[in-house]
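Annotators were shown the component list below and the corresponding predicted structure, then asked to write short factual statements about the assembly.
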Amino acid sequence: MPRPTFAMYWAASCGGCEISLLNVGELILDVDAAFDVVFWPCVADFKYQDVEGYPDGYIDLCLFNGAIRNSENEELAHLLRRKSKTLVAFGSCACEGCAPGLANLTTNAATIRTVYTDSLTTDESRTQAPRPVTQVPEGEIRIPVLYETVRTLDQVVPVDYIIPGCPPEARQIAAVLRAVLTGMPLPPPGGTIIGAGNVALCEECPLAKNVKQITRFYRPYEIVPEPGICLLEQGLVCMGPATRSGCGALCPQVGMRCEGCYGPLDGQDQGARMLAAVASVVAAGGAHLDEHAQAEEIAAVMDTLVDPAGTFYRFSLAHSLLRRARVADNSA
Amino acid sequence: MENEFQPIIVGFLCNWCSYRAADLAGTARIRYAPTMRPIRVMCTARVEPEFVLKALREGADGVLIAGCHPGECHYVEGNIKALRRFILLKAMLRQFGVEDERVQLVWAAASEGKQLAEAVDRMTEQLRALGPLRWRQRVLGEQPVARHAREVEVGGD
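Structure shown to annotators:
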């Protein structure tokens, strides 16, 4: 009997998801023994045309990491959806857009300008922005077209399961793989989240919360937080209240704020929830002040929070309620 | 006048004051722009930032949150909680390219029907100057979802 087939693909992402999968330790040998790898550009040499040659539904399990940012990503999303029985959005980029999704706060032209023109270089003669089509003596060379809006995998094709995290925690991946390998039933598919918790990260965080009111926010380099005490109450924008649990609150325990990589809880908008949580710890100014003075005092505290959109939506902008900013180019 | 752009304002009105103010404006027959769709909430603190974002995404041109004056909240300081959220929300919406005038917070006591009506009139004029928001179509590039067949035929503005 042929073994079940496995594929893993990497769209707009950093590659950390692949490392995280290998981090499951010796379990990876069981995966290798149980599955036939039929596509995995990061570790084995398969070509896209190999995948095109497979019959539909040939791949039993496909882990897809990365956001959909260009025409190649989108093409592969459609191709792998067609060829896969079970398609998993693996990691924050595929689930919520993650860091690539932050490009949705600006335009494509601005992103390209920053990367190719405004960045310092040692050789200015070689400055060249990417061009979709280039003529060379041998003919025409084409590269993928960059899209104006970064999308998540489930905004492009239907997804069976979602494993969040940047990257997903190895023990969470291992739990899912063990379930698959031993034939344990998974929850019904249809964008179902697996390999993560169902409560806010604060529930797993051991730091003490005293509901303190703060008068300014700090960026991580500006403060050495006191150990054992809630970081949000020390003025660090810890995303715990608006983030799904599952990682074991690793970052807050070592004094680093939660950045929100496990994404929002079911049905929530991570940025909006975080905004509400942050507002509730801000000192409101004394009751003795008149309403304008009170508003000014609150505004002064909020001014110390640099880049609210980029902070609250660091991992989930592409999947948020507004999804992208309105910029000159897209508001005709 | 017929073709003038009629903005859609989603109004979140506090049960204890601003909703009564809207009631008063009605019984006192104060004339004001018919642009606000009022939603009664128990307190401005009940208005999650999500409600505002969702209203903007789903077709509102602006959102008006109206509550009790500071010091007069039925729940002691729900309105101050709303104020804290509002100030941060505006800072964030600026990053999304949403103009300040599109989301407003006003205080209107139960006796201030006139003030509430004036706030709606003022906001309507400001939104007229800004033009429609139409987030789904203009920002996300989605096809308009018509709620009435007529909207498609006429163009939906």
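Statements collected:
1. Chain A touches chain B through 39 residues (CB under 8 Å).
2. The radius of gyration of chain A is 22 Å.
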